[in-house]
Design goal:
heterodimer, A: 378 residues, alpha/beta, Rossmann fold, 3 domains, six-stranded mixed sheet, 6 strands, flat, B: 291 residues, 2 domains, 14 helices, 48% helix
């Protein structure tokens, strides 16, 4: 066993908190394991210590991809602090530095450090910070918050996906499945000892998402797209369309399990990103080309758009009315609704409002997470 | 590099498995912290092979549990040997002490051990490979939690059975569904990525000693560039090896358009992917890549 200094222990706890603030799911067992490897002396070898903590602290690929950068960022600061302390100690007290620490911190951390006060302020992210980011309008996220918002979105969407899954899996055992019970009994001499039940699962819903990717929706489209990707496996069928001036059927591009690959694919194949908005025309095209296939009394239709129509308002109203008639529920998510003082007074929105079952905001993480209940309860 | 890790890498290399330092550290911790290791990664990157190699490296039996939807306690942990119990009841039906009879037929002698119970009953630590856990139901994940955290299994009639020796547990997942946080928390984690070009050439050379260096390099370059394309199923290391083996059998010295047309089926398994490659020339996949 290697003696670990109090400072190092505190630093290790700090690192655990630092990772936890960045959405790593870490509890006392992980901290205990981290201490155990430190006491075994693994911290004397930087790589061994880094990879060991990586295996213990990471629980998903997303953590795995980010860990090395976090480790370098955190421990290089420690190194520079230590180095500064050692210099000061040599200068003023002419005292020998702690050799074990020096070996571990061997000159392998070379990441430049911003001024300490500035850096600490940035890295002290607690519950309040998370709440602030959850409430921040996507269009108002500055560059410094963007990375944190990404991490938070990833974690919150993951948690939402787990909740969806649990709700979908819950269900009572239902009736006894006679055929399976008899088949199971064959190996036990024909005695029906193990009963098999017909499980009643909640019927998965069918949903169609139609996302506005025009210029005015630019800042929102990316998060809305990621939100839809999280939901895709929890519906019996999920069809996804994007539109601005033309309509694109995106569902065939969602087949991969790799979110980054899907985003690349969508970016490459949807040609109308950031162009004008012709909602009415696009919805009419949807009705004409896909309506018979994807609209029924079992379908929920969710339109994600700011409703800033540049085409014919009559055509938009007619299209929305027809969609509402053909589907079970029609929901319109409008990022502008989250703005203070917003009133749906644009011609486009005024005309479609009477046909909607729900009109909600979708401008920040919090509003997207609230939609979960709406989608589950429909 | 730490000497233990270095030794592990060398040993695995002798068993034809090329470890990188991070993965070797995870294996090292699996052995030393006695915690299960969850390996995630694309199909064909060598997750299952790692379990097999670990067993060979430790010279210990490998107990493999291939997961599928519908796995339950009776196929994975234990099952009462009903025939034997009934026979015993018949033999001793004249016995007046029914309670003792009841106790006897619900003893360890009347249990059929399935892989998980076998793994904790072994005298010497075995390697337990729970393969493709993402294919099993959530209920099965819940069964596993007790085993993974405490290395024990509860059988209602017998109570808790503790491990005689703690198995080295490796779980693999292709991420076809998200695993529960409870399961993840109990495991060490490693994402097994596609190898670098140099490492993949090493793997091919190790597995196929007769292959020319030039051909191995071409195969790997082609496969790496394929992985960058948007395919339904990017080829794994297993596919690289299969293709290299095929080309070797055909006495190829270089990859040509004709060879690609005739043999790409050993690399790509989807019609759209095969068509995508067939519509391009071989040179389009042989441009240099960063190693």
């Amino acid at each position: 066993m290697q003696e670990v200094t109090k400072t190092f222990r505190e630093r290790l706890i700090d690192f655990t908190l630092y990772c936890r603030e960045r959405q790593f799911v870490l509890g006392p067992p992980e901290t205990r394991d981290a201490f155990e490897i430190a006491e075994r002396g693994y911290f004397l070898d930087r790589k061994l210590f880094q990879y060991s903590l990586k295996a213990i602290y990471c629980k998903r690929k997303e953590h795995f991809d980010r860990f090395d950068e976090l480790f370098d960022r955190f421990w290089s600061r420690y190194y520079e602090d230590k180095l500064a302390q050692q210099k000061a100690a040599i200068k003023h007290k002419k005292k020998e530095p702690d050799t074990a620490t020096v070996i571990f911190l061997g000159a392998k951390f070379n990441v430049p450090k911003p001024p300490r006060e500035e850096q600490e302020a940035k890295e002290t992210v607690g519950a309040n910070e998370s709440i602030r980011l959850r409430m921040t309008d996507f269009s108002k996220v500055d560059v410094t918050d963007k990375e944190r918002l990404e991490e938070l979105a990833e974690e919150l969407f993951h948690q939402m996906s787990m909740r969806f899954k649990r709700r979908m899996e819950n269900g009572n055992k239902g009736q006894i499945a006679i055929r399976n019970t008899i088949r199971k009994g064959i190996s036990k001499g024909g005695m029906l000892l193990d009963l098999t039940y017909k499980r009643k699962r909640k019927e998965k819903r069918k949903v169609v998402f139609i996302l506005d990717v025009s210029g005015s929706m630019d800042t929102y489209s990316y998060y809305l797209l990621r939100y839809v990707l999280v939901l895709k496996k929890y519906f019996k069928s999920l069809e996804f369309f994007t539109f601005s001036t033309t309509l694109t059927h995106v569902t065939p591009m969602l087949r991969s399990n790799n979110e980054q690959q899907i985003l690349r694919e969508v970016g490459k194949n949807v040609h109308s990103w950031s162009s004008g908005t012709k909602i009415g025309e696009s919805l009419t095209e949807f009705l004409g080309s896909y309506g018979s296939k994807f609209l029924s009394q079992k379908h929920i239709v969710v339109i994600l758009s700011d409703g800033l129509e540049t085409g014919s308002v009559t055509q938009l109203q007619e299209a929305v009315r027809t969609i509402r008639r053909k589907c079970k529920t029609l929901v319109w998510l409008n990022p502008l609704k989250g703005m203070q003082g917003y009133q749906p007074i644009q011609k486009g929105m005024v005309n479609v409002l009477p046909h909607l079952d729900a009109f909600e905001s979708a401008h920040n993480l919090d509003s997207l997470l609230k939609l979960e209940k709406l989608l589950m309860d429909v | 590099m730490n000497t233990d890790i270095e030794r592990l890498i060398t040993d695995f290399y002798e068993h034809d498995y090329i470890l990188n330092e991070a993965l070797a550290t995870s294996i090292f911790l699996l052995k030393n912290l006695e915690k299960p290791l969850l390996l995630e990664g694309n199909p064909g990157v060598g997750k299952t092979m790692l379990g097999k190699t670990l067993a060979a490296h430790l010279d210990t039996p490998l107990i493999r549990l291939q997961c599928y939807e519908g796995l339950d306690v009776s196929t994975t942990i234990y099952e009462w040997n009903y025939q034997k119990q009934l026979l015993h009841i018949k033999l001793f039906e004249q016995d007046t002490d029914k309670k003792a009879l009841g106790n006897r037929i619900f003893g360890m002698d009347y249990i059929l051990k399935r892989p998980l119970l076998q793994s904790i009953s072994a005298q010497k630590p075995v390697v337990l490979l729970i393969d493709e856990i993402d294919r099993a139901d959530e209920e099965f994940e819940a069964y596993l939690l007790e085993l993974l955290s405490d290395f024990q299994i509860s059988i209602p009639e017998l109570g808790t059975i503790n491990a005689v020796s703690k198995p080295l547990v490796i779980l693999t997942s292709n991420r076809t569904r998200e695993l529960s946080d409870a399961l993840r928390r109990r495991c060490l984690y490693h994402w097994v990525d596609f190898p670098s070009k140099a490492k993949e050439i090493d793997i091919i050379a190790k597995k196929l000693p007769n292959i020319e260096e030039n051909l191995a390099s071409q195969v790997v370059t082609f496969i790496h560039n394929l992985r960058k394309s948007s395919l339904h199923k990017p080829p794994g290391i297993a596919e690289s090896l299969d293709w290299a083996k095929t080309l070797l059998l055909m006495n190829a010295a270089n990859i040509t358009d004709e060879l690609v047309q005739n043999t790409i089926g050993s690399v790509l398994k989807h019609k759209e992917d095969v068509e995508f490659v067939k519509n391009k020339t071989v040179q389009e996949f042989l441009y240099p890549i960063d190693s």
